[in-house]
Fold this protein.
Amino acid sequence: MLLYENLAHEFTTLIGEGRLRPGDRLPSVRRLAQQRKLSISTVIQALRTLESHGVVEARPQSGYYVRGRSARILEAPAITTAPAPVDVGVNSRLLGVLRANEMPGMVPFGSALPASELLLAPRLSRLYASIARKHPELLTNGSCSELSDAPFVKAIVRRSLEWGYPIAAEELVATNSCTEAIMLCLRAVTQPGDTVAVESPTYFVMLQLLESLGLRALEIPTHPLTGVSLAALELATRDGQVAACLFIPNGANPLGAIIPDETKQAIAELLALRKVALIEDDIYGDVCFASERPRPIHAFDKSGNTMLCSSFSKTVSPALRIGFVAGGRRSAQIALQKTLMSGKTSSLTQQVIAELLETRGFDVHLRTLRRRFSDQVARSRDAIARYFPAETRVTDPQGGFVLWLELPPAIDATALHRKAVAAGIAFVPGEMFSASGQYRNFIRLACGHPWSEQIDGALKRLGGLTHSSC
Ligand SMILES: Cc1ncc(COP(=O)(O)O)c(C=O)c1O
């Protein structure tokens, strides 16, 4: 074991044996370095490892604390053999679920959307009005060749300086959302019938995209804290059957996992070596809970094989439909797909985002959002521990605002969904997150809304329905 792994292991043992309890403060970095005769960077690496495993949390200006374990933690999947690709057929089943979830008056545990009061509507309306006044040409001009406007590109490149390795202006294409960015990448690197590796469980829209392009899904076992299994990925990509990977390395939906840096580096190298394209969805990168923003895999990939997709749907507003892709060496193919699919992304919206990102207030907004999401997730976990059957296991997300619950095996989550919808409560049944019919007794709960008595009451009712379905 390396020195930092030794130290991390020692603390994991102390916590596991209950000698350090939730809420206990760990000694400071300096003190640990002195006590153990280690370098500061080794101690920091050990603490970050513990943090990325969800064992401790960093509190700004205060230090590292043992995290609470109010609900039973979801267990890691076993990796036995290489997974096999399957056809995808989720679209028709999903439509009914999403429709039911969006009926008026539903308690909003369905869609992974932040509550509108957490977003920036007044700011946005002022920006739209002032930019349209200053640049009326943005309301009418179009372009077939210049897809991304210079201020937007500059603002994204500047922000990416904080992600470990800057995006190059030339590789950036502005898109109408993260979903469109992913679609463009899939179209650029796959043919119908190809196989795409995805996390398991994965965000259902990934499966819908594969289905609509006639692609097969290969589900890679994924750890609830550290993300996609490198060992399983190594097995799955040995024989050339995988054309591309589509992963959410930071704050994955639905697990909330963050792939540790060393694994990100290894994934970048493995896929570049085996010529498997990597599409990375980093939409939750800015709303992960650790003190430092996690890097995307793109930051570890010097080969241009990684396509980084993101949008402002979780941080600014899902209504703006604006995102981007940094396409690496495939940016020209992606730009062509963009021109063919939807033409240029609104210049007015590109300009609004560019101005918003350049204000100092934007970082304050992100910090507030992270705090709110982390609080909402923590309170929901506590309520689940109170109201749901004792065998229920739940994730401990490192970012984002969704929870993934494993209910007792007897429960059929789709039947539970029907009952919950009748009681005015939305969620997404686990089956929708798998192309191979896994997760029948799992559900995803979105926690995008501030904690309230209504949310608490709805979790209590949902817990009651779960008890009576056992
Ligand atoms: C992982 C992930 N990617 C993409 C999206 C959708 O983003 P957009 O609204 O920009 O298409 C979501 C929304 O839930 C998501 O969870």
